[in-house]
Amino acid sequence: MKSIAILTGGGPAPGMNTVVASVAKTFLRKGFRVIGLHGGYSALFTDKPRVQEIDFLLADSIFNRGGSLLKMSRFKPTDDDFAQRFNLSFFVDNDVKLLVTVGGDDTASTANRVAKFLADRQYPIANIHVPKTIDNDLPLPNGSPTFGYNSATAQGSVLASTVMEDARTSENWFVVSAMGRSAGHLAMGIASACHYPMVIIPEFFFNTEITIEKIVNMLVSCIVKRKLMGINYGVAMISEGVFHSLSDDEIQRSGIHFSYDEHGHPELGKVSKAHIFNDLLEQKIKKLGLKVKSRPVEIGYDIRCNTPIAYDLTYCTQMGMGVYALFEQGCTGCMVYVDHVGNVSPLYLKDLQDPVTGKIPPRLVDVKSNNVVAYVNDIMEYITPSDYEAAKAYLANPEEYDFHRILNW
User: Fold this and answer.
1) Domain of 95: which CATH number?
2) With 70 as the cut, is the pLDDT of residue 268 above it?
3) 318 and 288: one domain?
4) Beta partners for 298?
5) 207: Cβ–Cβ under 8 A, 6 or more apart, which residues?
């Protein structure tokens, strides 16, 4: 019986099960067997892969659930894995016609390697990728979101609103960090939904180097501005991408101790960015003599497996059905793209990749867009020249905490 295989790679995003279930339902109706693979690509490099037979009842029971039925993995095969451990018999014995992969750009790139490897061995197979990430940083056309982003933002906003209410109730400050290794979409989306008075994303620093001092001074700027307004509480949102953009020297100068990998780089993924920046803020506040209490909150792993909202349920269903539409057209080595009115088309990696590095450059927040400019100007709170005289009650040099001067805007 002709089959398709589905695997999921990278980290979770709301809508994973919706994609898998929609692909399965569509192909089952066309007479295909649907085989799910556990453990991402590791399943293809072992003699005993963990497989999951996906029938209609199973697909129907998972389509609206968070998490992923198919266990995920960041396994990335080496050339030796392909040469020595690739399980070609899995494709031959199961008459697999299509490999469907769900993940980010690394997962898509590996899918192309698998397809090329099989073609070199006279076993042609189509591969179609479904792009996901809660970071929203894949450069899809026309500003289309990556699936999972809207659900993660919605759940993150629920958590972030509760943090703001706690700040209001206790008259404390909170430093919140949101996921987003390369771009600040998630942080900006959550913060703007909750009217946070300070947001710091890596894209803000287009005219100056990112340093810890600048980040902390922006936090202090907001705290003092709120004090001038008679408000003794607040929440500041920092994208974790700001932290990952710091140089190694800058991180070492911070005095924070990390474990280091075999290349000598600090293992940033193991630490809470909110905790670190809150600690640095407390040191600064103590030095300035400000009477402020602050607490750290991390938003990340708690929004990756939540139940997808209606937007992603619909969007992921369209992409799942779109996989079959592209397969019928003979498309391979592509990502499925669904525009705002539901039109399906193939999106080829070669059209997105940097011609030199071969990597897909992240889609960054457009800080000069109307929505970002309006939020910075009308909702965020920070010291401006008109506040200098009043701010001297708290700061010896208020101009050093001027938001626009810090960023060289």
Assistant:
1) 3.40.50.450
2) no
3) no
4) 177
5) 407, 408, 409
Catalytic: 135?
yes
What's the CATH number where 388 sits? 3.40.50.460
Active-site residue, from 105, 135, 387, 402: 135
Pairing state of beta strands 126-131 and 173-178? Answer: unpaired
Would 364 be classed as within a structural domain? no
Contact between residue 102 and residue 20 where contact means Cβ atoms under 8 Å apart: yes
Q: Say whether both 289 and 394 belong to one domain.
A: yes
pLDDT one-digit tens code per residue, 129-158: 999 999 998 889 988 999 999 999 999 999
Statement to judge: residues 173 and 32 lie in one domain = no
Task: Give the C-alpha distances (Å, rounded to integers) separating 14 from 63, 91, 110, 266.
Answer: 11, 29, 22, 30
Angle, helices 273-288/212-228, rounded to nearest 10 degrees = 60
Angle among Cα 157, 162, 167 to the nearest 5 degrees reads 120
pLDDT digits (tens, 9 = 90+) for 97-132: 999 999 987 787 788 788 888 888 888 889 899 999
Residue 100 lies in a domain: yes
pLDDT digits (tens, 9 = 90+) for 302-328: 999 999 999 999 999 999 999 999 999
